Amino acid sequence: MGPRGRFTAQESLEALNFTLPPTIAAVVLNIVAFVCAFFSPEMGTIFSMLALFVWAILTVFSVIAAVRVNRGQPYRYALNLRLIK
């Protein structure tokens, strides 16, 4: 393992634990939006916007983390389930 091996593994695991639940939520919201679009286009739009909001928040926090980690500083997400050890 190289000099950054342990640090890189730690930060990538932190990022995986942060991105996995919102990604699953966004996929489910998109599926629900697709199904709702046939019965109520307004509800489909609402679920699509919720999925977009989840992706936007995920992107913002991921960019912040990437900048910090690129500087060599560890980053801990404020809301992280840490499901995978």
Explained architecture:
There is one protein chain. The chain contains two helices and no strands. The protein has one domain. Helix content is 76%, strand content 0%. By secondary structure, it is mainly α. The relative contact order is 0.19. The model has no long low-confidence stretch (mean pLDDT 89).
Beta-strand content: under 5%
**What's the helical proportion of residues?**
over 70%
Poorly predicted regions are none
When the domains are counted, the total is: 1
Looking at the structure, what is the overall shape? elongated
The span between the termini is 19 Å
Number of separate strands = 0
Count of alpha/pi helices: 2
Structural category: mainly alpha
Oligomer: single chain
Major β-sheet, in short? none
User: What series of H and E elements makes up the topology?
Assistant: HH
Query: What is the arithmetic mean of pLDDT?
Result: 89
What is Rg? 16 Å
Task: Compile the SSE list and pairings.
Elements: H1 5-39, H2 41-70
